[in-house]
Every structure is written in structure tokens, then in C-alpha cells.
Amino acid sequence: LVSRKKQKEDTIVELGGVSIGGGRPVMVAGPCSVESYEQVRQVAAALKEAGITVMRGGAFKPRTSPYDFQGLGIEGLKILKEAASEFGLKTISEIVDPAHVGLASEYIDVIQIGARNMQNFELLKAAGEVRTPILLKRGLAATIDEFLHAAEYIVAGGNTQVMLIERGIRTYERATRNTLDISAVPILKQESHLPVLVDVTHSTGRKDILAPCAKAAIAAGADGIMVEVHPDPATALSDAAQQLNIEEFHRFYAEVTRTGWGV
Ligand code: PEP
Ligand code: MN
Hints:
One of its GO terms (biological process) is chorismate metabolic process. With about 260 residues, the protein is an alpha/beta fold. The chain is about 35% helix and about 15% strand.
């Protein structure tokens, strides 16, 4: 069902005024984790100022260590919703538990399924049962074929509003946190009609190359970019090293869109 052979036209995911896929690329930005109302509000205000309409923020954080900040849970989703509605933004947040998929639509516009859960088949099936758009991240070591099959689970369940996001894969290279597989973008666009985004923050894990990687993604045909922004990255409870501060974010956005998204 996700194959181009099945459907020639691009799937366009509609978020009430914001469309993703088949047109102008979209920028999704926001903090790694929702930490407080004030923190999210500062980011939301900056996004609004830049004309950005979709904000991300993690409330359920799948952390490598059990001793690291695990997120504010439902309370975090409430904070995200409140700050977003003040500025008229759409929201994306990760859900990790199939039991939360149904209630997520009360708080957020898009459910993210994280890299670590790309093959959590019960979560994929739950995502297929709702009508909330899903942003599916590529697994840390998933092939493109496995990625598309994971998306197939959701669409086969009846939810056609699925977006794919390349977020880097694990290779031997240590200069970046993961290796951004830029070739995945044109391959996914050829093989599937679903929108394809690129997460430059988690794929590279370093701030200094975000703009060229985002430009490369757009040049390769991506429908959008995800980037992490925090009012004070040094104090961030997760991904402190690679989140942009607000000033850096404005510079990044100006650079990436300098030539009109390079398209
Ligand atoms: C995230 O986007 O917050 C995240 C945890 O990313 P990933 O699942 O790609 O590691
Ligand atoms: Mn992060």
C-alpha cells in the first residue's frame, strides 16, 4: 500500500492548514524534550517569529540509560499543547506505548514513532487504528525495505496519514553520531508515495553541519526537515550537545531557506 506502484500521486498529510508532502518543504523544530512550560513557550515564540508552523517536543523519551531523564509523560503533552495553541502551532511528539496512541490525539497533531520502536509491531498496529497522522522514524539499523514494511503495518491498519523520516543509521563512522543516509531520500521518494523528511539533529549529532545537511536533504527531494532547538541547550535534560539555541536556529533557518529552500 505504501508503494509508488500502488499509488502514483504523492500522499499529502494535512494538519489543518499545514500540508506535508508533494509541495513546499516544511520545517519541524523544537526541543528534544519538553522540560517546562516556559522552555517550550520560548521555543514556540521563536518558531512563530520565523513563520514556522510545526513544533516538536518529546514527552516520552526513550533513553539509552534508565538513569537519564525519561520525559514528563502526559504532563509534557499538556505543556506542548498549551504552548502550541498560544502561538497557533501544530505539534509532533513521540508515543512509545500502544495504550497511549488513542488518547494522544487529544494533545498532539502528529504521533512520532521513534527509531527504537520502528519495529515495535504492536505500536505500529495501534498507530494503524487511529486517524492521527504518524511520523515514523527509520530504525537505527533498519534497511529501507524494513522501514517501508514498518510503514506498511500502519497503512494496512487503515491509517493512510504516514510520513517517513530518515534520522541516520548506525555505521562504523564516529565523526557523526549516526550516518545520515542521504540516498534514502530519493530511494524512498521513488519507491513510496509517502512524504519523506530528514532529521538533521539526530542523524549528525553535531551542530556545525546542520545547515549543509538540511540543504542536501532538500536538494535530494525531502519534504521537510526536523531540527532540535532549545532556549538554553547547555542545561537541556537530553541532547544538550546538539540542540541549537534560538539565535543559532534563526541563522540555520535563514541559511537553509536562503535560496527559497534551494528548489
Ligand atoms: C527524537 O526525535 O526525540 C528521538 C528520540 O529520535 P530518534 O527516535 O530518531 O532517536
Ligand atoms: Mn533529541
